[in-house]
Write a structure and sequence with these properties.
Length: 262
């Protein structure tokens, strides 16, 4: 038997074992949401979410790297992020659990959709402007006591560019009177240090297909870089279009190698 064949066999066994670990971890998450969440306060819930997310990253062979996380306040804020993968949410929760706004498609995902609902995710229909306005009002109420993360590109990308940010959900920060922080997410190969597409969830790709792609790689670093609100004119925070444009440009500039002013 050749050395190459043995290596491939070992790799296939390793990937198969990872699928078993993923399945067991999802079942453990369902049990936690069903039997522990109903009796837990918010701090305990956050601890459970963070531990589950960190374990998920570990199973998929993803290392979490954080930059500028100290700039985030202890009071509620809106976090606007670029979007590459379904793994983005778990990477953010592995750092610090937060409420999310997601497209309505996610709600229909088997298991993960139900889990997202239990975690307080707000779902939005992207093709319905009236529904978007209602969601902005709903999110503003959540922002009274919890921070919320949005993905205003409206879709996921390979991470090479940042698509124009849709301004509708930034209205929630205007209504609630909270600051908007930005988050630049990138995935890199831990072997080469170069940007990697392995986690990208794009086009017609299904969830299981994406999971398989990451498990076959298992050499990724997800980097979360937090960027501050602008110190611009006082009226800026009342203009959702300005907030969206500033956030998009801040993330795009960072990913293109321009370091933010702290």
């Amino acid at each position: 038997m050749s050395k190459k064949h043995l290596l491939n066999q070992s790799r296939n066994t390793s990937v198969a074992w990872c699928w078993i670990l993923v399945s067991a971890h999802v079942i453990a998450g369902l049990a936690t949401l069903s039997f522990q969440f109903p009796f837990a306060d918010q701090n305990k819930k956050n601890q459970l979410i963070q531990a589950w997310s960190n374990r998920l990253l570990s199973i998929f062979g993803i290392e979490l790297s954080l930059k500028n996380q100290a700039i985030l306040p202890n009071t509620p804020f809106l976090l606007a992020s670029n979007h590459i993968s379904w793994m983005d949410i778990h990477a953010i929760n592995a750092f610090k659990p937060i409420r999310f706004v997601a497209k309505s498609d996610v709600e229909g995902w088997p298991i993960f959709g139900w889990m997202a609902k239990q975690l307080g995710t707000v779902f939005i229909r992207r093709d319905n402007a009236r529904h978007g306005k209602k969601v902005a009002e709903d999110v503003s109420r959540v922002l009274a006591s919890h921070s919320v993360c949005i993905f205003p590109e409206g879709t996921s990308t390979l991470g090479e560019i940042v698509l124009p940010f849709k301004p509708n959900l930034f209205e929630s920060a205007v209504i609630a009177g909270v600051p908007v922080y930005s988050l630049a997410i990138s995935y890199r190969s831990s072997a080469s240090g170069e940007r990697s597409d392995a986690a990208a969830f794009v086009g017609e790709m299904g969830l299981l297909e994406s999971m398989a792609k990451i498990l076959n790689d298992r050499q990724l670093i997800v980097e979360l870089t937090f960027l501050p609100p602008s110190g611009g004119h006082p009226e800026a925070s009342r203009d959702r279009k300005w907030l969206a444009l500033h956030s998009q440009e801040a993330i795009s500039n960072y990913l293109n190698g321009h370091q933010p002013l702290m």
